[in-house]
Design brief:
Layout (H helix, E strand, L loop, with lengths): L4 H6 L6 E5 L2 E4 H16 L6 E4 L3 H13 L4 E3 L5 H6 L6 E4 L7 E4 L25 E7 L5 E7 H15 L5 E4 L6 H14 L2 E3 L6 H7 L5 E4 L1 H4 L14 E5 L5 H11 L3 E7 L3 E6 L9 E2 L4 E4 L4 E5 L9 E9 L5 E6 L3 E4 L2 E4 H9 L4 E9 L2 E8 L1 H10 L1 H12 L11 E4 L13 H4 L13 E6 L3 E7 L19 H16 L2 E12 L8 E7 L6 E7 L2 E11 L6
Parallel strand pairs: 1-10, 3-4, 3-5, 4-7, 5-6, 9-10, 9-11, 11-12, 12-13, 23-24
Antiparallel strand pairs: 1-2, 7-8, 13-14, 14-15, 16-17, 17-18, 18-19, 20-21, 22-23, 25-26, 26-28, 27-30, 28-29, 29-30
């Protein structure tokens, strides 16, 4: 069997309903004619790579087949933000799009509807695509800049054949919440139904009620953790899908369990990336269900327990390293443990933390920034310039961050926008001079009136110093005392135990205290330094300092965090 999507299209009956759009089906023959129209127009265009940006999966298929048949390298663009297009040097490419607002558009794909694209003899020339033709996907490399990963068509088609052995043929339309501009969406919303002779549902859908309404018997839903974690409780599903797919990041077990209850089928999670293609799959039965490698994929554990794989989907003869640490099991499966690089998965999309930091630091109001993932969302610790201080003073912190998000949106897509912000005096580093997630985490404790917001953290080999200013509306000042508020000793102990629990990852609620001494009162708006030291959570010394004076001190013993059974 030939490994190219044009041969799959050519094998379908001419009237096969291949693409469902706007209440009607587009036949395989019509898709062929419109793709041939792209090919013919590209024969007369300047020789350059083709950038393809299409929201509609049917137009994406037409543009991809036509451009590949014209002998062009095709690069799928994640979004159309102007700054992003400048970064990927779009000015040097020929653009295909179904969005009339796309910059420098060369072929507006809807214009091809009804095209016959005959050759000089009036006969439609079938499409032919070389198996070594290139499809490129933009993702984030370790530098944080958009990075192009180039894959031969044969590698992509080899994966479709392997995946199809596992999942079979969809008996109904393939609906999706993910974009076919990324490799996961292209594989499962476009190439899989094309290969198996099923039906592509062209529009991408965000609303779960809309998906439930359009899903027919035998249909498939291609989704992501970003959507599956937002399933509404009241959703009514007339028909259970044959398959419910998720990829982009591991799905937490409570969300997987809820999705199974709502949709009536388990979530099939696929692990992979733009670089590697598909790696493995699982259907969660507990909080840490192992992954099973895909057919033809071999895995091993390398340095730092890093997952390495040998796969026909990478184009490499040997093993390729990933950014995940794993535990290998005797039966050949593996458990994911943690990320080893600064590429995070947010909403199912790869986000380079360094790229987001660079965009923030390019703003004149921001002197320094550090971005991390906290409780599943992107969080930014920011040091402002005097100009930034003025913006916050004039507009308030919330409106200031909205202004800055509007600025960076010209370069970054929504998954790369920080959702939580903290304004700090300095970005902390550990004793090796590195900014690590464990010392940044306390900046992003849940905001409220029980704990003050951290302004700075100093870390040495022997201690951690947490700097904060006590706001007048801190709940601990309530009733102590009207007209002359001071921070009660019990509140000081709560603050010390809470921050120690964050640093040592222990339960602060069961902390025991000893050797407590209070030496001076602490008042609203005073800048306080909490110094925490100790070799382990069983013996943490703390002290509060105000203007260099010792205010309170003592010893904490933190409880182990007990996981629910």
């Amino acid at each position: 069997m030939r490994r190219d999507p044009a041969s799959w299209l050519g094998a379908l009956p001419a009237q096969h309903p291949l693409v469902w759009r706007n209440g009607h089906c587009v036949s395989a023959a019509q898709i062929m004619r419109e793709a041939c129209g792209v090919r013919e127009r590209l024969h007369n265009a300047p020789p350059a790579p083709v950038l393809l940006y299409a929201a509609d999966a049917g137009y994406a298929l037409i543009g991809l087949l036509g451009a590949l048949a014209a002998g062009r390298e095709v690069r799928l663009v994640a979004h159309a933000a102007p700054g992003y297009w400048a970064e990927i040097h779009a000015e040097n490419a020929f653009v295909l799009s179904d969005d009339a607002q796309t910059p420098q558009i060369g072929i507006y794909l809807p214009d091809l509807e009804g095209s016959t694209a005959p050759d000089d003899g009036g006969i439609l020339v079938p499409l032919a695509i070389d198996s070594d033709s290139i499809v490129g996907f933009y993702s984030s490399g370790t530098t944080g800049m958009a990075k192009l990963f180039r894959k031969e068509v044969s590698w992509i088609c080899a994966e479709i054949e392997a995946q199809s052995k596992l999942w079979g043929r969809p008996d109904g339309p393939v609906l999706g919440t993910v974009s076919q501009q990324h490799i996961y969406g292209l594989l499962f919303r476009v190439f899989w139904p094309l290969y198996t002779g099923s039906t592509i549902y062209a529009p991408r859908m965000d609303d779960w009620s809309e998906i439930a309404c359009h899903l027919t018997v035998g249909g498939t839903v291609v989704s992501s953790p970003a959507h599956l974690t937002r399933l509404p409780d009241e959703l009514t599903v007339p028909h259970a899908p044959t398959l419910l797919l998720s990829s982009g990041a591991p799905l937490d077990f409570p969300s997987a369990l809820k999705a199974r209850q709502v949709w009536g089928v388990p979530v099939t999670e696929l692990l992979g990336s733009s670089e590697t293609g598909g790696i493995a799959w699982r259907r969660s039965v507990d909080t840490n269900t192992p992954f099973t490698p895909l057919p033809g994929v071999s895995v091993r554990s390398g340095p730092e327990d890093r997952l390495e794989l040998c796969s026909p989907f990478t184009g490499e003869a040997g093993f390729v390293a990933t950014g995940d640490a794993v535990t290998l099991l005797e039966d050949g499966r593996f458990r994911l443990e943690r990320r080893l690089d600064r590429i995070a998965k947010i909403g199912g999309k790869r986000v380079a933390l360094a790229r987001v930091e660079a965009a923030l630091k390019a703003l004149p109001e921001i002197a320094d920034a550090c971005v991390m993932v906290h409780e599943g969302v992107l969080a930014a610790a920011v040091v402002t310039t005097p100009k930034g201080d003025g913006v916050i003073a004039e507009y308030g912190s919330f409106r200031a961050t909205r202004r800055w998000l509007a600025e960076i949106s010209r370069l970054l897509e929504p998954a790369e926008w920080p959702k939580r912000w903290r304004f700090v005096d300095v970005i902390p580093q550990n004793s090796q001079g590195k900014r690590t997630a464990d010392i940044l985490a306390p900046f992003f404790q849940v905001q409220g009136k029980d704990l003050p917001s951290i302004r700075a953290i100093d870390v040495t080999e022997k201690s951690t110093c947490i700097h904060f200013v006590l706001p007048p509306d801190l709940r601990g000042f309530d009733g102590h005392f009207p007209g002359d508020p001071i921070l009660p000793g019990v509140v000081q102990l709560h603050i010390a135990a809470s921050f120690a629990g964050l640093l040592w990852k222990r339960d602060c609620a069961g902390a025991t205290l000893s050797r407590i001494k209070f030496r001076r009162v602490i008042r609203p708006k005073e800048r306080v330094v909490l110094v925490l030291s100790g070799d382990d959570a069983d013996n943490v010394q703390f002290r509060f300092e105000v203007a260099g004076d010792l205010a309170a001190s003592g010893t904490l013993r933190l409880s182990e965090v007990v996981s629910p059974s």
